[in-house]
Amino acid sequence: MRPFHYTAVETVEDALLEAGAMREVSFIAGGTNLLDLMKEDVMRPVKLVDISRMPLDQIEPTADGGLLLGALARNADTAYHPLVRERYPLLSQTLLAGASPQLRNMASNGGNLLQRTRCYYFYDVGVPCNKRQPGSGCPARTGLNRLHAVLGTSQHCIATHPSDMCVALAALDAQVHVSGSRGERTTAMQDFHRLPGDRPDLDNTLAVGELITGIELPAEGFAAHSAYLKLRDRQSYAFALVSVAAALDLDENGHLRDVRVALGGVAHKPWRDRAAEQASVGRPACSAVFSELAQTVMEQAVGQGQNDFKIPLARLAIVRALEMALGMPADQRAAAEGMT
Ligand code: SF4
Description:
five-stranded antiparallel β-sheet; four-stranded antiparallel β-sheet; 30% helix; binds iron/sulfur cluster
């Protein structure tokens, strides 16, 4: 690990002052990803600003019926918070599907949004990688790409975003609160992360020196009908090959008043297709409609070779997650999926 300066702050104002407008300064809270990246020489901050003592660990109701998650609330505390479990079980499920208990005890909510891809080449400073060193190339396109993206890729990068939590936040239409030298702003979760395009080195839309202060959940938590399905190589401590956060709102006839499908493990950001969701509104909540929705969502998907399997897997996972959100018993799910 390279030498770096370290300073600890207790207020957002001091954090912003310490960071200034230097790209080489990093904020650190739980450090569960950043320290790995520094040890591997992937990230080389000249200064760490420790923000873990700032008073941003609250989880509290908002005036309009939602919930504000402090950026420094731990993932474990968030997952087990009574209001999160009761009103946003989808978020609780995604948090508990991620990492390990030890990591969830350290990782902060803001840090979860900022964790970086687990592309093997990104972590290996001995090989080129456009995300680590723009213009150097993307060996994953013709190399090991089993874990990589099938939607929203570019010729410059096919990495995926690794977070589970962010998939639920995208489905729930969360808002990210940000502070910077120009003041405070709020951005929709869906707009927070970027697709790689020709700047895969930029994971998100934070400006240099900006800091996440909170994540706001809207009043609607889909507590009655939501589910998270994470498919991975082993049952714990593994990143998603494909994951689906599904949420439904039904009218009195069992038709879809609202439907949300967010995917993890398939793109550079949590993936939603709002047009496909909207086309399902007003239709019956059943496996046939879910299957049509899944087909549409995955229509533009392109495999890279080793990850071709993700496309049919994601189609099936979307249907399964929506059936789980609907509350369909397992034996009925199996029968319905055989027909669709
Ligand atoms: Fe780097 Fe992205 Fe290519 Fe991975 S997929 S090697 S992160 S440019």
